[in-house]
Specification:
Helix content: 55-70%
Order of helices and strands: HHHEEHH
Structural class: mainly alpha
Number of helices: 5
Largest sheet: 2 strands, antiparallel
Strand content: 5-15%
Distance between the termini: 41 Å
């Protein structure tokens, strides 16, 4: 009869692999986050196109708004101020208010016009897809790392 069993594990290889994977993810954090942001950006643009086409082109004083002004004003940008190297990557998707000052009225409505939002509905519609896109990019980064160490 055996009174005791002793098992020994050498964790040094696992720790080194985990450190290397952590570094790989940290070094590729922006592309991972951008993959998710791209899904939101694409959906916002898709929701803006019909709003732009239906927008009233004549403004007060006889001025006109160019067709496509809102679509052209939609942007996606990496936010250095809201990110932290290697641990957090933040992207903003919004509109340039100078190029499309009417976007605020569409998104939020006015006392005379119902809101026709495009930012929040885009977020709600593609939240899962954006997460999946980021996860796929993460998986790709990890596969590259694992493939290069074996």
């Amino acid at each position: 009869m055996v009174d005791a069993v002793t098992c020994t594990f050498d964790m040094s290889g696992i720790e080194a692999d985990l450190d290397a994977m952590t570094k790989a993810v940290s070094d590729n954090l922006r592309p991972i986050a951008q993959a998710g942001a791209q899904a939101f950006y694409n959906e916002v643009r898709a929701r803006v196109q019909p709003l732009d086409a239906a927008a009233v082109r004549h403004l007060k004083g006889g001025r006109t708004r160019p067709v496509g002004a809102l679509l052209a004003a939609i942007y996606q940008v990496y936010s250095k101020d809201n990110s932290k190297d290697g641990t957090l990557a933040t992207y903003h998707i919004s509109w340039n208010a100078r190029k499309a000052p009417h976007a605020h009225f569409l998104e939020n409505g006015t006392s005379r016009m119902a809101a026709r939002p495009f930012i929040r509905p885009a977020f709600d519609a593609v939240q899962a897809q954006a997460l999946h896109s980021s996860e796929a990019e993460l998986e790709s980064v990890l596969k590259q790392h694992v493939g290069s160490t074996k």
